[in-house]
Write a structure and sequence with these properties.
Layout (H helix, E strand, L loop, with lengths): L1 H34 L31 H4 L7 H22 L19 E6 L2 E6 L3 H14 L9 E2 L20 E4 L17 H4 L13 H9 L2 E3 L10 E4 L14 H54 L4 H5 L17
Antiparallel strand pairs: 1-2, 3-4, 4-6, 5-6
Helix pairs in contact: 4-6
Length: 340
């Protein structure tokens, strides 16, 4: 009994200590939660693209290369998680074959050289940055249009391009290691949802009406980047406003390379959708013609009935008899259509 009693006291002591730790952790989490920023609204306000006078093609990011479209989430059904893991491997292979093999991601048989082998140091917006040579033409076109369209009020002071260390976790790999991502002024353009301490940035603490209020870079820069195959990670759940990554087709950056196949497919899909809409409109018009004809006939019948009633009154018939004539129903007129 004494042994059992001693064990019980020790268990109580352990439970008390554990409860204290949990309570302290909860208090810390609550305090941290008070400073945790809320996601900012992301406007869908890209203006119409002007006529392209650059040497580069306009192109959107390839949809399945966008992080949010292949990243598995634990809240997803197992089948969807499996599909996304397979797609993630496809994405890694796409990057490896075109930009270099990064250790532990993909297969070195897909590319014998590391990304640094394909990197080059350039000057962009007056600052040095190391980037994959394949995306340099796209960055040149972005710079050309930023200078032409966005004014000179904002001049970056710091850029980050190629990295030799992966900064993502949980089996993900950053596009920085392939040299196809660029960060613009990380100290001024926030990533409020990245890691806890970054959420302490003053721009992250106040509620905002737009994510643009959490960065110093003009929205014009975002719109220009997005025309040339770059994806702005400000649209991601991380809301990484400093970060642009090239997710277009590197084989079709220049106009001399011809248009990117995924853009032709997208235009074809839009054309098919427009054709389907036109066909639907044609069917609706064809269906409307008989209804309009019926309505016209019903209207004519009503005129005849009204004339017959007037003649009956003139012939000395009573108003009651005239009113007993069948009323015109309108033949399915549009009078109740608004209520359907």
């Amino acid at each position: 009994m004494r042994y059992s009693f001693a064990m019980s006291r020790r268990n109580v002591l352990l439970l008390t200590m554990l409860s204290s730790v949990v309570a302290l952790g909860a208090l810390g989490a609550t305090a941290a939660g008070q400073n945790r920023p809320q996601r900012a609204p992301i406007p869908d306000d890209a203006p119409p693209r002007p006529e392209n006078e650059t040497a580069c093609n306009y192109q959107d990011p390839i949809p399945w290369l966008v992080r949010e479209n292949f990243l598995p989430r634990w809240t997803q059904p197992p089948e969807e998680q499996r599909r996304r893991r397979e797609l993630q491997q496809k994405v890694v292979r796409f990057r490896t074959e075109r930009y270099g093999y990064f250790e532990d991601f993909g297969d070195p048989d897909w590319n014998e050289h590391p990304p640094r082998h394909y990197s080059t140091r350039i000057e962009w917006m007056g600052l040095p940055v190391r980037i994959n040579e394949r995306v340099v033409p796209a960055l040149r076109c972005v710079e050309e249009q930023i200078r032409a369209e966005c004014g000179g009020e904002y001049e970056p002071v710091r850029l980050s391009g190629l990295r030799t260390r992966n900064t993502y976790h949980n089996g993900q790999v950053s596009n920085h290691v392939y040299g196809i991502a660029i960060d613009v002024d990380p100290h001024l353009n926030t990533c409020c949802m990245c890691v806890a301490q970054w959420g302490d940035h003053p721009l992250c603490q106040n509620p905002v009406e737009s994510i643009y209020e959490r960065m110093a870079m003009p929205p014009c820069w975002v719109h220009v980047f997005e025309r040339f195959g770059f994806y702005w990670l400000g649209r991601d759940r991380l809301q990484d406003t400093m970060h642009f990554e090239f997710l277009g087709d590197p084989d079709h950056i220049l106009k001399t390379d011809g248009p990117a196949p995924h853009m032709a497919e997208a235009e074809g899909a839009e054309g098919d959708a427009e054709g389907e809409d036109a066909a639907d409109e044609g069917e609706e018009e064809a269906a409307a013609e008989p209804a309009e004809s019926d309505a016209e006939e019903a209207s004519a019948g009503a005129d005849v009935d009204e004339a017959a009633s007037m003649e009956a009154v003139a012939a000395g018939e009573t108003a009651t008899e005239a009113a007993s004539a069948p009323p015109a129903t309108g033949g399915g007129c549009g009078c109740s259509a608004a209520g359907l």
